[in-house]
Amino acid sequence: MNASPVKLPPSRTWRDLPQPIKPRAMSREGRRRRALAAVRGTGLAGLLLGAAWGGMEFVFTLKQNPARLVAPAGGATVRGLVLRTDGVLDEAWVQATLALSPQAGLMALDLAVLQRRLLAGGQVSVAELTRRLPDKLAVTLHERAPVARVLAQTGDGEPRTLLVARDGTVFAGAGHTPETVARLPFLNGVRLKAAGTGFVPIEGMAAVAGLLAAAQSGVPELVRGFRVVSLARLESDDVITVQSDDVGEVIFGVREEFARQLARLDFALAATRRQFPVGTLRVNLAIGGGQVLVARLAVDLPVEGTARPRPADGAAASTAKFLPIPSLSVNFPHAL
Amino acid sequence: MLSRTKFIGAVEIGTSKITVIVGQVARGRSLSLIGLGECPSRGVSKGTVVDFKAATECVHAALEEAERSAGARVGEVFLAQSGAHLEGFQNEAEVRVSSADNMVSALDIENVCGLAKSKQLPEGRMVVHHLRRPFRLDGRLVPDPEHLDGRRLEVGYWTVHGQESRIADHLHVIRGFNVRVTELILSSLASGSVMTSADDRRHGVLVLDLGAGTTDFVLYRDGCALLTGIVPVGGLHFTNDLSLGLRLNDQDQAEKLKLRHGRAVVTTKDRTEKLWLNGDLGIGDRQFPRLTIEQITAARARELLEVVRKKLGGNFDPEHTAAGVVLTGGASKLAGIEDLAAQVFDVPARLGEPPGWVGDHLRAPGHSTALGLLHYGLGASAEGSAARRPATVGGLLRKFFTAGN
Fold this sequence. Notes:
The complex is a heterodimer of chains A (336) and B (405).
Chain A: H1 28-64, H2 67-70, E1 80-85, H3 91-98, H4 111-120, E2 124-132, E3 136-143, E4 146-152, E5 160-165, E6 170-171, H5 178-182, E7 186-188, E8 194-195, E9 198-199, H6 205-218, H7 220-223, E10 226-230, H8 234-237, E11 239-244, E12 248-253, H9 258-275, E13 281-284, E14 293-297, H10 314-318, E15 322-324
Chain B: E1 5-13, E2 17-26, E3 30-40, E4 44-45, E5 48-49, H1 52-70, E6 76-81, E7 87-96, H2 106-117, E8 125-132, E9 135-137, E10 140-142, E11 152-163, H3 164-175, E12 180-186, H4 187-195, H5 198-203, E13 205-210, E14 215-221, E15 224-231, H6 235-245, H7 251-261, E16 274-276, E17 287-289, H8 290-312, E18 325-328, H9 337-345, E19 349-351, H10 368-388, H11 393-403
Parallel strand pairs in B: 1-6, 6-12, 13-18, 18-19
Antiparallel strand pairs in B: 1-2, 2-3, 4-5, 7-11, 8-11, 9-10, 9-11, 13-14, 14-15, 16-17
Helix pairs in contact in B: 4-10, 6-7, 6-8, 8-9
């Protein structure tokens, strides 16, 4: 009928009626609800205004002085360290290693960088750093325990004594008492390779650590005399050679349980010393088949008042002339 | 505050009582009925507010009771509208399909609908509903003509309009509780939507909501509401007739007799059979002939239904009302009313049964309008909300402010 209909203005509907009502026409409950809505509305408006103001402040500061945005975050300076460690390092060492400036802000610290500093020396195996608000830095360390020491010649100066951990990590060692260091045997027959500011871990240290631990628990009086542990033949012959004050030279095989070898050593020494109370011996525990080869140094070294073999002399000691003891017959118990 | 769960109050301001049902709508999909509040009505006559203060007190008391029972605050209200001031008319329009290939476009539909709705109302009247009937494309009924091929598109609307001041009074009663009315729904449409199935409406059904002060009716055909109407006669008139006919001064006693012994069709043949008013033989206890009681109520019931039949006029055709007559509302509890309706309308009649998801405490016929408000209103909101209230920041803020109301 109508291709292009003429539209009349729409009739008024009930939705056109205004719904606001004056408070006096409301019931008490209605007024209460209205007041509650007003409170909520005011709260929301305040919230929105606050958010808008904060946003404007942020944008303004970002444009004018961006440095101020990070300053409040790092504003609280570090006023102390909270150190937890399972080793010997102390707070002074941590502070010296971290090298924090007195004005360093707690929130501005780069914890990853600080962690790398702690791990760089090698003595620390795991370092965790956490911010403890408002102004403390918590440091938790897991340290490597030294099992041996090694002399390292760096540059033209005097050789330096470095410590070696069970995993072969070589580190300078801090916080250890001289007595502790003096009890550690020297390592011989190893070649230190520089890697960055440290050294490549020494291979075979797990075997050395196992030997020393077994000796410490099995023959503690004997292990105190261990001066040099040589790894020179470890790779080629699977043996560890130990220079000992009490015995002379003892050769351990790494393929057999150290505890059994130490038991045989103890037994063999007891039998030998009955025949030769003094004198330097060479005891080879690595020949297999439960056999022990005991030899006696041809020209015996003085037992008392003479210098003990130095680590550097380890190789010379191992090439000294030993005479076999033909009359010595050691019958081991079956268990050994 | 911006939760996807909302609490809607369905409010029916009836002549005898105010009913509020609280529905919890989750994510706009699932409806749970969680609260009910009722209060005897004051200040309301034949569905319209005549004493604002008294009506406000009753409505607010019912709303508070419903909120207490629901344990939640009503955020918006669907309000039932009734009253003799409501009228309706039908208006039809047709347009030629504009495109060269005769495919109906959305613009064609918009044009024909706009034309059919553009009827100026007298001063002081305003539209409550535009109820669209099915489209006709070249004479055939189509539910959605878009993209169909045809030359002539027709549509008809049944427009319900009411007096502005009476509608505003209803809204203000609710606004006094500081809750916004989001849907205003004709009582008959509300009852009809919940008491009939889609099949009933497609086959044709007449729904009679017999209230205390008014009788609202809606006639469905082809799945759509064909026309609606209101007769300002209801259950209270039965009571009043009994009171006058039996010379009872106390309306409560007349109401008691109506509920106990009233019938829509006379079945008693014994003229001597008497009934006691109270049965306790106390002071004031009297006897009344049963036949008289039945005759009074039956006469009024028949008159009422015949008035409805007359108002329906030629629009009511038993052949197009295969689903018959469905009776609901408080006055439909009158015994034999369905038999009388079957006689008057010459189609099967039955008492309305709410859907199975309605709990036992809400299945009484007096709750059908409030139930239907939620049922119909949610559907209407879902259809209209996208067009009326786009999801803007302003809309969300308004939602926040009204959520606490």
